[in-house]
Amino acid sequence: MRAVVVNSFGGPEAVEVVETEVPRPGACQVRIKVAAASLNPVDAGVRAGVFGGAGERIGLGWDVAGTVDAVGAVDAAGAWSVGDEVVALHYGAVKPLGTHAEYVVVDADAVAPAPATVDAVHAATLPLNALTAAQALDRLEPAPGRSSLLVTGAAGAVGGYAVRLAAQRGMAVTGLAREGDEDFVRSLGARHVTSDAVATRGFDAVLDAAVLGEPALAWVRDGGRYIGVIPHAEPASVRGVETGAVEVSADGARLAELVRLLDEGVLTTRVAETYALEDAAKAHARLGEGSVRGRLVLVP
């Protein structure tokens, strides 16, 4: 099969499409024939060596939508059958094969039924970003009477899901976004949208999807909460503010809840462009240009 990998770190030119053996599922695993797999900023970080792994062949890709092609031991992966249409998160920055491939093996408990209302290309944009947003919000669950939330990067993939999910929970959400994104962020459920949060300090919590760090921490009230989206990169606590960062985890049951919300119209997906698998380097170059609204998706 074909798979997208890096053998050395660098820019888009480091991305290679190689021939490799089709992986076999072990106990508690399933193999998915990939229909679509989205490209995320974390893939660019892996490609550039941010997460280590020098000297190894590293497979790219975390999100996948496709069809179950094989299962491990029946008693271990009995929830899934060959032919099931699914989505999954393949967690891990340094791994020999990712989802940017024709087939991928994932743990059975990382898998959820595919959405019924969108195609595989759109479904592939859901797992990583929606799970990150949901798990970050879990860390920020407010006390009674304390429900104001600022989401930075509110028009982005993680930020957009965070705004929608937080609004559904009844939180008073303010989105920090560019002026041109105001209508979109309001459509997600934000009560207020700003391009400059300095004038609106005192939030009970900040979900820093834009990775602003200390400037975003300054907008939290004394004793509030700050959550980032890059593990171990959150700013130090000040003024009694609890700080932390979400490290997304593969969770098929939680992903199934998000799929249900997508099918109910609560969540929406955004696709910017699609690329053939052999054009993965071009997709990385496009991601590096910035100003991408929605995800770039590879289609084997």
Question: What would you say this structure looks like, in words?
Answer:
This protein has 300 residues and is α/β, with parallel strands linked by helices. Helix content is 23%, strand content 29%. The protein contains eight helices and 16 strands. It has helices at 41-48, 120-123, 127-139, 157-168, 182-187, 214-217, 252-263, 280-289; strands spanning 2-6, 15-19, 29-39, 58-59, 63-71, 85-89, 103-107, 111-113, 148-152, 172-176, 192-194, 203-208, 220-228, 242-245, 271-276, 295-299. The strands form three sheets. Strands 3, 5, 6, 7, 8, 15 and 16 form a seven-stranded mixed β-sheet that branches. A six-stranded parallel β-sheet has the order 11-10-9-12-13-14. Strands 2-1-4 form a three-stranded antiparallel β-sheet, covered by helices on one side. The longest helix is centred in the middle third of the chain and has 13 residues, at 127-139. It starts with a strand and ends with a strand. The model has no long low-confidence stretch (mean pLDDT 93). Keywords: Oxidoreductase. This is NADP-dependent oxidoreductase. Its EC number is 1.-.-.-.
The number of strands is 16
What is the share of helical residues?
A: 10-25%
Largest sheet: 7 strands, mixed
Structural class by SSE content: alpha/beta
**Overall 3D form:** globular
Report the radius of gyration as a whole number of Å.
Answer: 19 Å
Distance between the termini: 10 Å
InterPro entries: ADH-like_N, ER, GroES-like_sf, Lipid_raft_assoc_Zn_ADH, NAD(P)-bd_dom_sf
GO molecular function, one term: oxidoreductase activity
Keywords: Oxidoreductase
Domain Enoyl reductase (ER): 10-298
